[in-house]
Amino acid sequence: MAKRFGILTAGGDCPGLNAVIRGAVLKGETVYGQEFVGFRDGWYGLVYGDIIDLDRSVVRGLSNQGGTILGTSRFGPYSEPDGGPENIKKVLKNLGIDGVIAIGGEGTAAASKRLLEDGIPIVGVPKTIDNDINATDYTFGFNTAVEIATEAIDRLRTTGNSHKRCMVLEVMGRHAGWIALHSGIAGGAHAILIPEQPESINQICAWVTSVKNRGRAPMVVVAEGFKLPEMAEAHSTKGLDGFNRPRLGGIAEVLAPMIEERTGIEARATVLGHIQRGGVPTAFDRVLATRLGMATADLVADKKWGHMVALRGTDIVRTTFDEALADPKQVPLDQYQEIRVIFG
Ligand code: F6P
Protein backbone atom coordinates (compact mmCIF):
# COMPACT_ATOMS: atom_id res chain seq x y z
CA MET A 1 0.00 0.00 0.00
CA ALA A 2 1.33 3.42 -1.00
CA LYS A 3 2.08 5.29 2.20
CA ARG A 4 4.41 8.26 1.82
CA PHE A 5 3.37 11.26 -0.24
CA GLY A 6 4.87 14.60 -1.20
CA ILE A 7 2.75 17.76 -1.33
CA LEU A 8 3.62 20.85 -3.34
CA THR A 9 1.98 24.23 -3.96
CA ALA A 10 2.76 25.73 -7.37
CA GLY A 11 1.91 28.93 -9.26
CA GLY A 12 0.41 32.00 -7.59
CA ASP A 13 -0.53 31.60 -3.93
CA CYS A 14 -4.10 31.68 -2.71
CA PRO A 15 -5.76 31.84 0.73
CA GLY A 16 -6.55 28.28 1.85
CA LEU A 17 -3.43 26.46 0.63
CA ASN A 18 -2.33 25.74 4.19
CA ALA A 19 -5.77 24.43 5.10
CA VAL A 20 -5.55 21.91 2.21
CA ILE A 21 -2.15 20.74 3.46
CA ARG A 22 -3.48 20.39 7.01
CA GLY A 23 -6.60 18.52 5.86
CA ALA A 24 -4.57 16.00 3.84
CA VAL A 25 -2.01 15.38 6.58
CA LEU A 26 -4.56 15.03 9.39
CA LYS A 27 -6.84 12.64 7.51
CA GLY A 28 -3.96 10.76 5.91
CA GLU A 29 -2.21 10.17 9.25
CA THR A 30 -5.33 9.48 11.28
CA VAL A 31 -7.33 7.30 8.91
CA TYR A 32 -4.74 5.67 6.64
CA GLY A 33 -1.45 5.83 8.56
CA GLN A 34 0.06 7.79 5.65
CA GLU A 35 3.19 9.93 5.94
CA PHE A 36 3.74 13.25 4.20
CA VAL A 37 6.56 15.53 3.18
CA GLY A 38 6.31 18.94 1.59
CA PHE A 39 8.31 19.97 -1.48
CA ARG A 40 9.69 23.49 -1.07
CA ASP A 41 8.81 26.20 -3.60
CA GLY A 42 6.57 24.20 -5.92
CA TRP A 43 8.05 21.98 -8.61
CA TYR A 44 11.54 23.17 -7.66
CA GLY A 45 11.40 21.07 -4.48
CA LEU A 46 10.31 18.01 -6.44
CA VAL A 47 13.02 18.37 -9.07
CA TYR A 48 15.78 18.96 -6.47
CA GLY A 49 14.44 16.77 -3.67
CA ASP A 50 14.16 19.79 -1.36
CA ILE A 51 11.65 18.66 1.28
CA ILE A 52 10.36 19.31 4.77
CA ASP A 53 8.65 16.75 6.96
CA LEU A 54 4.93 17.33 7.32
CA ASP A 55 3.34 15.70 10.28
CA ARG A 56 0.59 16.57 12.69
CA SER A 57 2.82 18.87 14.74
CA VAL A 58 3.86 20.87 11.65
CA VAL A 59 0.31 21.46 10.36
CA ARG A 60 -1.11 22.36 13.77
CA GLY A 61 -3.23 25.55 13.67
CA LEU A 62 -2.57 26.08 9.97
CA SER A 63 -6.08 26.46 8.55
CA ASN A 64 -6.34 30.17 9.28
CA GLN A 65 -2.94 31.06 7.83
CA GLY A 66 -2.69 32.76 4.46
CA GLY A 67 0.04 31.99 1.90
CA THR A 68 1.68 28.57 1.85
CA ILE A 69 4.12 27.18 4.41
CA LEU A 70 5.78 25.27 1.55
CA GLY A 71 6.50 28.31 -0.59
CA THR A 72 5.62 28.46 -4.26
CA SER A 73 7.25 29.44 -7.53
CA ARG A 74 6.69 29.57 -11.28
CA PHE A 75 9.45 26.96 -11.78
CA GLY A 76 8.25 24.15 -14.08
CA PRO A 77 8.90 20.39 -13.56
CA TYR A 78 10.45 20.13 -17.01
CA SER A 79 12.82 23.08 -16.47
CA GLU A 80 16.35 22.49 -17.74
CA PRO A 81 18.80 21.19 -16.77
CA ASP A 82 17.44 18.90 -14.03
CA GLY A 83 13.68 18.71 -14.67
CA GLY A 84 11.86 15.93 -16.48
CA PRO A 85 10.40 12.56 -15.50
CA GLU A 86 13.58 10.49 -15.27
CA ASN A 87 15.20 12.72 -12.65
CA ILE A 88 11.92 13.15 -10.81
CA LYS A 89 11.45 9.37 -10.64
CA LYS A 90 14.94 9.08 -9.12
CA VAL A 91 14.16 11.79 -6.57
CA LEU A 92 10.93 10.07 -5.55
CA LYS A 93 12.68 6.70 -5.27
CA ASN A 94 15.56 8.11 -3.20
CA LEU A 95 13.15 9.83 -0.84
CA GLY A 96 10.82 6.83 -0.63
CA ILE A 97 7.85 8.84 -1.90
CA ASP A 98 4.97 6.88 -3.46
CA GLY A 99 3.02 9.74 -5.04
CA VAL A 100 2.77 13.49 -5.49
CA ILE A 101 -0.07 15.84 -4.52
CA ALA A 102 0.12 19.02 -6.63
CA ILE A 103 -2.00 21.96 -5.47
CA GLY A 104 -2.24 24.54 -8.22
CA GLY A 105 -4.11 26.22 -11.02
CA GLU A 106 -4.39 25.54 -14.70
CA GLY A 107 -0.60 25.61 -15.34
CA THR A 108 -0.02 23.12 -12.51
CA ALA A 109 -2.77 20.80 -13.79
CA ALA A 110 -1.24 20.88 -17.29
CA ALA A 111 2.23 20.06 -15.93
CA SER A 112 0.73 17.32 -13.70
CA LYS A 113 -1.02 15.75 -16.68
CA ARG A 114 2.23 15.63 -18.63
CA LEU A 115 4.05 14.09 -15.64
CA LEU A 116 1.29 11.50 -15.26
CA GLU A 117 1.68 10.54 -18.93
CA ASP A 118 5.42 10.23 -18.26
CA GLY A 119 4.78 7.74 -15.46
CA ILE A 120 4.76 9.89 -12.31
CA PRO A 121 2.02 8.95 -9.79
CA ILE A 122 0.32 12.28 -9.19
CA VAL A 123 -3.01 13.77 -8.12
CA GLY A 124 -4.19 17.39 -7.98
CA VAL A 125 -6.14 19.97 -6.02
CA PRO A 126 -7.48 22.98 -8.00
CA LYS A 127 -6.70 26.42 -6.57
CA THR A 128 -7.12 29.98 -7.76
CA ILE A 129 -8.75 33.16 -6.54
CA ASP A 130 -10.01 33.60 -10.13
CA ASN A 131 -12.60 30.77 -9.80
CA ASP A 132 -12.10 29.98 -13.50
CA ILE A 133 -11.66 26.19 -13.34
CA ASN A 134 -14.53 24.33 -14.96
CA ALA A 135 -14.17 21.10 -13.03
CA THR A 136 -15.22 22.68 -9.74
CA ASP A 137 -18.14 24.90 -8.73
CA TYR A 138 -15.89 27.09 -6.59
CA THR A 139 -12.16 27.20 -6.02
CA PHE A 140 -10.91 27.96 -2.51
CA GLY A 141 -9.45 31.47 -2.29
CA PHE A 142 -12.20 32.97 -4.43
CA ASN A 143 -14.51 33.68 -1.50
CA THR A 144 -11.68 35.41 0.40
CA ALA A 145 -10.82 37.56 -2.63
CA VAL A 146 -14.49 38.54 -3.00
CA GLU A 147 -14.71 39.51 0.68
CA ILE A 148 -11.60 41.68 0.38
CA ALA A 149 -12.84 43.33 -2.81
CA THR A 150 -16.26 43.92 -1.24
CA GLU A 151 -14.67 45.61 1.75
CA ALA A 152 -12.69 47.79 -0.66
CA ILE A 153 -15.92 48.81 -2.44
CA ASP A 154 -17.56 49.67 0.89
CA ARG A 155 -14.59 51.85 1.81
CA LEU A 156 -14.37 53.52 -1.60
CA ARG A 157 -18.05 54.36 -1.46
CA THR A 158 -17.73 56.39 1.73
CA THR A 159 -14.86 58.51 0.41
CA GLY A 160 -16.54 58.70 -3.02
CA ASN A 161 -19.73 59.98 -1.40
CA SER A 162 -17.85 62.64 0.59
CA HIS A 163 -16.22 64.06 -2.54
CA LYS A 164 -19.02 63.25 -4.98
CA ARG A 165 -16.51 61.41 -7.14
CA CYS A 166 -16.77 58.44 -9.44
CA MET A 167 -14.68 55.64 -7.91
CA VAL A 168 -13.33 52.94 -10.22
CA LEU A 169 -12.08 49.77 -8.51
CA GLU A 170 -10.06 47.21 -10.46
CA VAL A 171 -10.04 43.63 -9.22
CA MET A 172 -8.13 40.53 -10.36
CA GLY A 173 -9.46 37.44 -12.12
CA ARG A 174 -7.45 37.21 -15.37
CA HIS A 175 -9.91 36.47 -18.19
CA ALA A 176 -12.84 35.68 -15.90
CA GLY A 177 -15.11 38.23 -14.26
CA TRP A 178 -16.11 36.22 -11.18
CA ILE A 179 -14.41 38.40 -8.55
CA ALA A 180 -15.76 41.58 -10.17
CA LEU A 181 -19.27 40.16 -10.52
CA HIS A 182 -19.59 38.85 -6.98
CA SER A 183 -17.90 41.76 -5.18
CA GLY A 184 -19.71 44.25 -7.42
CA ILE A 185 -23.10 42.77 -6.56
CA ALA A 186 -22.21 42.51 -2.86
CA GLY A 187 -20.96 46.10 -2.75
CA GLY A 188 -23.89 47.49 -4.76
CA ALA A 189 -21.71 48.79 -7.61
CA HIS A 190 -23.46 50.95 -10.21
CA ALA A 191 -21.59 49.26 -13.05
CA ILE A 192 -19.63 45.99 -13.19
CA LEU A 193 -17.31 45.47 -16.13
CA ILE A 194 -16.13 41.94 -16.91
CA PRO A 195 -13.92 40.34 -19.58
CA GLU A 196 -16.79 38.24 -20.92
CA GLN A 197 -18.85 41.28 -21.99
CA PRO A 198 -17.33 44.37 -23.65
CA GLU A 199 -19.13 47.61 -22.80
CA SER A 200 -18.60 50.89 -24.68
CA ILE A 201 -17.27 53.99 -22.96
CA ASN A 202 -20.53 55.73 -23.93
CA GLN A 203 -22.54 53.11 -22.07
CA ILE A 204 -20.25 53.29 -19.02
CA CYS A 205 -20.52 57.11 -18.99
CA ALA A 206 -24.32 56.89 -19.34
CA TRP A 207 -24.48 54.71 -16.21
CA VAL A 208 -22.11 57.04 -14.32
CA THR A 209 -24.09 60.15 -15.33
CA SER A 210 -27.41 58.69 -14.31
CA VAL A 211 -26.01 57.84 -10.86
CA LYS A 212 -24.58 61.33 -10.50
CA ASN A 213 -27.92 62.87 -11.58
CA ARG A 214 -29.60 61.04 -8.70
CA GLY A 215 -27.14 62.72 -6.35
CA ARG A 216 -25.06 59.61 -5.71
CA ALA A 217 -21.34 58.95 -6.15
CA PRO A 218 -20.91 56.39 -8.97
CA MET A 219 -19.07 53.17 -8.09
CA VAL A 220 -17.64 51.19 -11.00
CA VAL A 221 -16.02 47.77 -10.51
CA VAL A 222 -13.85 46.57 -13.37
CA ALA A 223 -12.14 43.20 -13.80
CA GLU A 224 -8.49 43.42 -14.88
CA GLY A 225 -9.33 41.47 -18.06
CA PHE A 226 -12.14 43.82 -19.20
CA LYS A 227 -11.89 45.17 -22.75
CA LEU A 228 -13.59 48.13 -24.36
CA PRO A 229 -15.06 47.04 -27.73
CA GLU A 230 -12.16 48.65 -29.61
CA MET A 231 -9.47 46.79 -27.61
CA ALA A 232 -8.07 43.63 -29.24
CA GLU A 233 -6.48 42.40 -25.99
CA ALA A 234 -6.92 43.02 -22.28
CA HIS A 235 -4.85 45.92 -20.94
CA SER A 236 -1.30 44.80 -20.18
CA THR A 237 1.83 46.92 -19.85
CA LYS A 238 3.93 44.78 -17.49
CA GLY A 239 5.32 42.12 -19.80
CA LEU A 240 4.84 38.36 -19.42
CA ASP A 241 4.45 36.13 -16.37
CA GLY A 242 6.24 32.84 -15.65
CA PHE A 243 3.88 31.00 -18.03
CA ASN A 244 4.51 33.53 -20.85
CA ARG A 245 1.05 35.03 -20.39
CA PRO A 246 0.63 38.82 -20.47
CA ARG A 247 0.47 40.24 -16.94
CA LEU A 248 -2.83 42.07 -16.69
CA GLY A 249 -3.67 45.19 -14.71
CA GLY A 250 -4.19 48.92 -15.05
CA ILE A 251 -7.48 49.13 -16.95
CA ALA A 252 -9.02 51.20 -14.09
CA GLU A 253 -6.35 53.82 -14.66
CA VAL A 254 -7.32 53.94 -18.34
CA LEU A 255 -11.05 54.18 -17.67
CA ALA A 256 -11.09 56.74 -14.83
CA PRO A 257 -9.67 59.65 -16.90
CA MET A 258 -11.91 58.72 -19.84
CA ILE A 259 -14.96 58.86 -17.58
CA GLU A 260 -13.84 62.17 -16.05
CA GLU A 261 -13.19 63.75 -19.44
CA ARG A 262 -16.50 62.65 -20.97
CA THR A 263 -18.83 63.22 -17.99
CA GLY A 264 -17.12 66.08 -16.16
CA ILE A 265 -17.36 64.00 -12.97
CA GLU A 266 -14.11 63.76 -11.05
CA ALA A 267 -12.95 60.14 -11.14
CA ARG A 268 -10.36 58.12 -9.19
CA ALA A 269 -8.93 54.69 -9.93
CA THR A 270 -7.89 52.06 -7.36
CA VAL A 271 -6.09 48.89 -8.41
CA LEU A 272 -6.59 46.40 -5.57
CA GLY A 273 -3.84 43.98 -6.68
CA HIS A 274 -2.31 41.30 -4.49
CA ILE A 275 -4.18 42.42 -1.37
CA GLN A 276 -6.85 40.07 -2.80
CA ARG A 277 -4.53 37.07 -2.39
CA GLY A 278 -3.05 37.82 1.02
CA GLY A 279 -4.06 37.29 4.62
CA VAL A 280 -6.38 34.90 6.37
CA PRO A 281 -8.86 32.80 4.37
CA THR A 282 -12.58 33.23 5.08
CA ALA A 283 -14.43 30.49 6.99
CA PHE A 284 -15.97 29.33 3.67
CA ASP A 285 -12.53 28.90 2.10
CA ARG A 286 -11.12 27.18 5.19
CA VAL A 287 -13.96 24.65 5.12
CA LEU A 288 -13.66 24.05 1.38
CA ALA A 289 -9.87 23.76 1.49
CA THR A 290 -9.92 21.42 4.50
CA ARG A 291 -12.49 19.15 2.81
CA LEU A 292 -10.48 19.11 -0.43
CA GLY A 293 -7.31 18.26 1.49
CA MET A 294 -9.04 15.41 3.31
CA ALA A 295 -10.48 14.06 0.05
CA THR A 296 -6.95 14.11 -1.38
CA ALA A 297 -5.80 11.69 1.33
CA ASP A 298 -8.60 9.38 0.10
CA LEU A 299 -7.47 9.83 -3.52
CA VAL A 300 -3.89 8.76 -2.86
CA ALA A 301 -5.03 5.93 -0.57
CA ASP A 302 -7.02 4.65 -3.56
CA LYS A 303 -4.08 5.34 -5.94
CA LYS A 304 -6.34 7.41 -8.18
CA TRP A 305 -3.40 8.91 -10.07
CA GLY A 306 -4.46 11.50 -12.65
CA HIS A 307 -7.45 12.57 -10.58
CA MET A 308 -8.28 15.79 -8.81
CA VAL A 309 -10.74 16.70 -6.10
CA ALA A 310 -13.46 19.28 -6.75
CA LEU A 311 -16.64 20.81 -5.34
CA ARG A 312 -20.01 20.00 -7.00
CA GLY A 313 -22.93 21.54 -5.20
CA THR A 314 -22.08 20.74 -1.61
CA ASP A 315 -20.25 17.50 -2.39
CA ILE A 316 -16.54 16.92 -2.77
CA VAL A 317 -16.10 14.75 -5.89
CA ARG A 318 -13.31 13.28 -8.01
CA THR A 319 -12.50 14.63 -11.44
CA THR A 320 -9.60 14.39 -13.89
CA PHE A 321 -6.80 16.67 -15.07
CA ASP A 322 -8.46 16.68 -18.50
CA GLU A 323 -11.71 17.99 -17.10
CA ALA A 324 -9.91 20.66 -15.07
CA LEU A 325 -8.11 21.73 -18.23
CA ALA A 326 -11.24 22.02 -20.35
CA ASP A 327 -12.20 25.58 -21.35
CA PRO A 328 -11.83 28.03 -18.47
CA LYS A 329 -15.03 28.74 -16.57
CA GLN A 330 -16.21 32.22 -17.48
CA VAL A 331 -19.22 34.19 -16.30
CA PRO A 332 -22.25 33.09 -18.38
CA LEU A 333 -23.81 36.07 -20.12
CA ASP A 334 -27.25 35.43 -18.65
CA GLN A 335 -25.75 35.76 -15.16
CA TYR A 336 -24.24 39.08 -16.16
CA GLN A 337 -27.45 40.30 -17.80
CA GLU A 338 -29.36 39.43 -14.64
CA ILE A 339 -27.52 42.19 -12.73
CA ARG A 340 -26.78 44.52 -15.69
CA VAL A 341 -30.45 45.56 -15.88
CA ILE A 342 -30.04 47.55 -12.65
CA PHE A 343 -26.75 49.30 -13.51
CA GLY A 344 -26.70 53.07 -13.50
O1 F6P B 1 -4.40 33.77 -11.12
C1 F6P B 1 -4.37 34.49 -9.93
C2 F6P B 1 -3.90 35.90 -10.17
O2 F6P B 1 -3.93 36.60 -8.93
C3 F6P B 1 -4.67 36.66 -11.24
O3 F6P B 1 -5.92 37.12 -10.80
C4 F6P B 1 -3.67 37.74 -11.58
O4 F6P B 1 -3.85 38.24 -12.90
C5 F6P B 1 -2.35 37.02 -11.48
O5 F6P B 1 -2.56 35.89 -10.65
C6 F6P B 1 -1.23 37.85 -10.90
O6 F6P B 1 -0.08 37.07 -10.94
P1 F6P B 1 1.28 37.45 -10.25
O7 F6P B 1 1.16 37.12 -8.79
O8 F6P B 1 2.28 36.60 -10.94
O9 F6P B 1 1.50 38.93 -10.45
Topology, pairings included?
Blueprint lengths: L3 E6 L7 H16 L2 E5 L3 H6 L2 E4 L1 H4 L25 H11 L3 E6 L1 H12 L4 E5 L15 H22 L2 E6 L6 H9 L4 E3 L7 H13 L5 E5 L27 H13 L3 E5 L11 H19 L5 E6 L2 E6 H4 L8 H8 L4
Parallel strand pairs: 1-2, 1-4, 4-5, 6-8, 6-9, 7-8
Antiparallel strand pairs: 2-3, 10-11
6-O-phosphono-beta-D-fructofuranose binds next to loops.
Protein name: ATP-dependent 6-phosphofructokinase
InterPro entries: ATP_PFK (IPR022953), ATP_PFK_prok-type (IPR012003), Phosphofructokinase_CS (IPR015912), Phosphofructokinase_dom (IPR000023), Phosphofructokinase_III (IPR012829), PKF_sf (IPR035966)
Function: Catalyzes the phosphorylation of D-fructose 6-phosphate to fructose 1,6-bisphosphate by ATP, the first committing step of glycolysis.
What features would you describe in this structure?
This protein is α/β, with parallel strands linked by helices and 344 residues long. The protein folds into 2 domains: 4-140 and 281-324, Rossmann fold (3-Layer(aba) Sandwich), CATH 3.40.50; 143-277, Phosphofructokinase domain (Rossmann fold, 3-Layer(aba) Sandwich). It is built from 12 helices and 11 strands. The chain has helices at 17-32, 43-48, 56-59, 85-95, 106-117, 142-163, 178-186, 201-213, 251-263, 283-301, 321-324, 333-340; strands at residues 4-9, 35-39, 51-54, 99-104, 122-126, 166-171, 191-193, 219-223, 267-271, 307-312, 315-320. It has a 5-stranded mixed β-sheet, with helices on both faces. Strands 7-8-6-9 form a 4-stranded parallel β-sheet, sandwiched between helices. Strand 7, helix 8 (201-213) and strand 8 (219-223) form a beta-alpha-beta unit. Helix 1 (17-32) packs across helix 10 (283-301), helix 6 packs across helix 7 (178-186) and helix 8 (201-213) crosses helix 9. The radius of gyration is 22 Å and the shape is elongated. 51% of the residues are buried. The mean pLDDT is 96. Bound molecules: 6-O-phosphono-beta-D-fructofuranose.
